[in-house]
Amino acid sequence: MLTCKQTTELLSQAVDVELTVSQKLLLRAHLVICSSCRAVQDQFQFLHRAMQRYRGDEDVAASRSEDRS
Amino acid sequence: MTADFEAHRSYLLRVALLQMNDPDIADDLVQETMAAAVEGWSSFSGKSSVRTWLTGILKHKIIDAIRRKSREPNFTSLTAGLEDELETDDFIALFNNHEHWEDRQPAWANPDEALERAQFRDILDFCLQKLPKNTARVFMMREVLECSNEEICKELSITSTNAWVLLYRARMALRLCLQKNWFGTPPDTVAEPTR
Question: Do residues B58 and B12 make contact, with C-beta atoms less than 8 angstroms apart?
Fold first, then answer.
């Protein structure tokens, strides 16, 4: 079982690379029971969108709706 | 067709400054980027925004500058102070002895609406400037210059473990800074009240 600290570390990596299947399973098991880590997951993904906007990607809105579907 | 590159100058300068930590070098790199953009304007495909295209040119100028700098005879290290940034643990207080949250972390209300606001973008800039030097640099290389982790490690001569740690620390620090300066205390009517 992952700790919250380990979970946030993996959530950061997940923004940059594709996690392994076992990492994804561990994450999912933790996120199901932890609303704080779910909030951090949303916030890390939001930061990524904010930086895309910062660097001037104009298709941010499009990629955002894909994330949600 | 022409483009107003000047409108992007201050953005390019901020990015270059976070990479080089030297206003003169940053200024030169932006100047070179502008010159290359004027020269290469006919090759701009329009598939990305002008700013994204300029960012790509700046990326090459920055990597060239990093390589030049590391070949200087009196060169010591690009990542001075790295050990301190890796060792200090500002986030330890967030977690208890079992590495679980000390306090419940709240979700942010309507974060994407904030992206439309100039005031929020100023706060984001403020938070980026506040990051420790190497942390900011690695984060900007990853998220703005879109360098791969391999590129970051190679150009800065750091291990991939250190790159992961710095990216993590950047995200945790930005999250706290935005929480403190925006999402925790909305300055005015940030969002419509939700029912």
Answer: yes
User: Which residue of A11, A33, A47, A64 to mutate against B (max B Cβ within 10 Å)?
Assistant: A47
Query: What is the predicted pLDDT for the residue at B92?
Result: 78
- Cα–Cα dist B77/A38, whole Å: 38
DSSP lists the bridge partners of residue B101 as B95
Q: What pLDDT does residue A57 have? A: 62
- For residue A11, pLDDT beyond 50: yes
Tokens of B180: 């403190």
Average pLDDT along chain B, 195 residues, taken 10 residues at a time: 78 93 93 94 87 94 90 75 82 88 94 92 94 94 94 92 95 95 70 43
Q: Six-digit token pair at B64?
A: 């060239």
Section A24-28 average pLDDT: 97
ipTM attached to this prediction: 0.86
Token digits for B22? Answer: 């030297």
B21 Cβ neighbours under 8 A, 6+ residues apart: B133
Interface test with A, best of B97, B110, B143 (most A CBs within 10 A): B143
Tell me the C-alpha distance between B102 and B69, whole Å: 44
Q: Is residue B81 a contact partner of residue B133, using CB atoms and an 8 Å limit?
A: yes
- Which H or E run contains B36? helix B23-40
Closest to A12 measured CA to CA, from A59, A45, A34 = A45
Q: What is the 3-state secondary structure (H, E, C) of B120-133?
A: HHHHHHHHHHHCCH
Say whether A3 and B101 touch across the interface (CB within 8 A). no
